[in-house]
Amino acid sequence: MRRINVDKLSSGVMLARTIYSSDGNILLNAGIKLKESYINKFKELGVTEIYIEDEISHDILVSDVIADETRFEARIAIKNAMDNLKYGNNFDVKPIRNVVGKIVDELLCVEDAIINLQDLKTSDNYTFYHSANVCVLSTITGVSLGFNKEKLKQLALGAILHDIGKVKIPNEVLNKPSKLTPEEYEIIKQHSRHGYEILKKSMELSTYASYIALTHHERYNGTGYPLGLKGDEIHEFSRIVAIADVYDAMTSDRVYKKRSNINDTVEYLVGMGHHQFDYEIVRNFIEHISIYPSGSCVSLNTGQIAIVVDVNKKYPNRPIIRIIKDEYGNDLKDMYEIDLTKYNTIIINDVIDDI
Ligand SMILES: [Fe+2]
Fold first, then answer.
1. Which residue from 11, 39, 71, 205 has the highest number of Cβ atoms inside 10 Å of its Cβ?
2. Ligand 1: distance of its center to the CA of 191 in Å?
3. Are 34 and 14 in contact (CB under 8 A)?
4. What does 124-192 look like in DSSP terms, one character per residue?
5. DSSP 3-state of 9
6. Ligand 1 centroid from CA 281, angstroms
């Protein structure tokens, strides 16, 4: 399978991964042939990219680090909790605790988990997808830092709930398509305190969860909010969640901005590693990110166009690629694969929308 921008789609192409609506229902099943009406629906829903299967990509596998069902369950659990809170009810921690346990168990079974699959978020389901992603990314980092299972569960539970305070932020501010006014930004910033207030009331949660909600926007150099904590004054759980949160937010399309590519985001995190973030944690985090995920289309310094077939875990920017077009833009009859760790002069210029 390969990833393609929805604007480049034409009817008749086969969908390679199931698309879900924001309420968790299946919109379109993997394997279906796309019609013009489906493509228009994607655009309406704000789905910007999907995975398709065609003759040049049919043998490329793109697998997630956790089971599809688990990721799905995580999004639904957080959605249900937020829906309950929105209508003034309490939320049940049990389903969230259950799925967090599954995420921890699954990640403990993977050796050197690498994030290779990019989410197919829509603008209206952002918070649920984001919460599940931040949980998975934070837990992978915790595994990499050698945390035991109990510690991982505490981290994962706080990570999935980190933005729960957003239920108290008016939708028109949260999803405003243009730049926020200083007053609106102050309202958004309140979500960390709201999250703390919500979670500290729950007898079923340890103080870590409310602490993470309160302090995930604190920054290592003291420039964060709401308390302006610095360095080790910020618990390591929140230092981890802060990095996962920024990574996932930067690599996601939002109503007010287009996402950054993974390479730029990783460079940003490394650059900020000595300022806003804990550098040691950034180093651990980026070891688990595939800069050019399998199924991405890329342009090369040779002028050729290729698809990423597989990642090299030790060299994230030197994947195995399949050359699809020559330097003049002609389709190759005989596509061939090269391992970029063996061809030092060939460099990936950019990830492109389509071939
Ligand atoms: Fe947040």
1. 71
2. 7
3. yes
4. GGHHHHHHHHHHHHHHHHHHHTT--HHHHHHHHHHHHTTTGGGGGS-HHHHT-SSPPPHHHHHHHHTHH
5. coil
6. 19
pLDDT value of position 123: 64
CB 284, CB 302: distance < 8 Å: no
**DSSP assigned state of 115:** B
Assigned fold of 2-53: Molybdopterin biosynthesis moea protein, domain 2 (3.90.105)
Amino acid at 143: V
CA distance 256 to 258: 7
Give me ligand 1 centre to Cα 304, in Å: 40
d(Cα 140, Cα 288) in Å, to the nearest integer? 8
pLDDT of 202-243, one tens digit each? Answer: 988 999 999 999 999 999 999 999 999 999 999 999 999 999
Q: What is the DSSP letter of 260?
A: P
Distance 307 CA to ligand 1 centre (A): 34
216 C-alpha vs ligand 1 centroid, how far in Å?
6
At 22 the pLDDT is: 66
Q: Which residues pair with 20 in a beta bridge?
A: 26
pLDDT of res. 295: 92
CA of 98 to the centre of ligand 1 (A): 23
Q: Where are the domains of the chain?
A: 2-53, 68-286, 297-352
**Separation of CA 112 and ligand 1 centre (Å):** 27
What's the pLDDT band for 124 if we cut at 50, 70, 90? low
CA of 180 to the centre of ligand 1 (A): 16
The CATH number of domain 68-286 is 1.10.3210.10? yes
Residue 89 CA to residue 97 CA, distance in Å, equals 18
Q: What is the mean pLDDT of residues 87-97?
A: 92
Cα 188 to ligand 1 centre (Å): 9
